[in-house]
Amino acid sequence: MNVDHEIELLVQGLKRIGTAQPDGSYVTKFGVLFKDEQLEQQLETLVGTLKAAKKRGVVHFEGQMLLQGAHDNVDIILKPH
């Protein structure tokens, strides 16, 4: 698994399905992201990629771990580049 490539796919997905904000960021709910068929096919593990992207400062979300169902309404924010 190439983490840089996975993060780039995540960034592209967030731009595609997220809502652009005035500051250049994009926001979507974890549940929407989790159920996206294109990302599901492209990423080995969405949660792992999100954690790696958060560690690198690419995205922001509350908490350390996201679980489908329990965290569907958590905002995933793609920070402006």
Characterization of the model:
This protein is of the alpha+beta class. It has four helices and four strands, in the order αββαααββ. Strands 1-2-4-3 form a four-stranded antiparallel sheet. A hairpin with a 5-residue loop joins strand 1 and strand 2. The longest helix has 15 residues, at 3-17. The termini are far apart.
Write the layout of secondary structure elements.
Layout: H1 3-17, E1 19-20, E2 26-29, H2 30-34, H3 37-42, H4 46-55, E3 59-60, E4 75-78
Antiparallel strand pairs: 1-2, 2-4, 3-4
Low-confidence stretches: none
Count of discrete alpha- or pi-helical segments spanning 4 or more residues? 4
Order of helices and strands: HEEHHHEE
- How far the N terminus sits from the C terminus, by CA atoms, comes to 24 Å
Short description:
The protein has 81 residues and is of the alpha+beta class.
Core attributes:
single chain; 81 residues; alpha+beta; four-stranded antiparallel β-sheet; 4 helices; 15% strand
